[in-house]
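Case study 2.
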Amino acid sequence: MFQKNVQWFVDRLMERLVPTIGSFLTGALQRMLIINHAEHHNQLEEQAIRYEAAGRQDIADLIREQARTLTLDKPLPMAQQVLENFDAANPAIFEATQGNLTMALPDAARRPKGRKRLDDPASELEGEQS
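Prediction:
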């Protein structure tokens, strides 16, 4: 009987404790995201001000326009467009995705540079004579 009562008490405690801890952690995470988002916008505005001071109003306006499109819900609004245009913009990667992988890989026939050994007295003498 006692064990059953203790089990009931622990179950009720966990039913209330888990959501409380979860909401606390969620709130802390949201607060951190909002503060970092605001800091990011502040850095973008400072950069825009620097470009204005340098006489580059067009770049400052572009930074501000792009900063307005950033939201917490969609942090990379242009990511989908970049990915769609990426294959067409880079022919080597486009060919690699079409099955011609050898065009995108670097030349494997190159020989690596030789390294001189530190414990070889001959290499030390060559280094001193140079």
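Confidence is low (pLDDT under 50) at residues 100-105.
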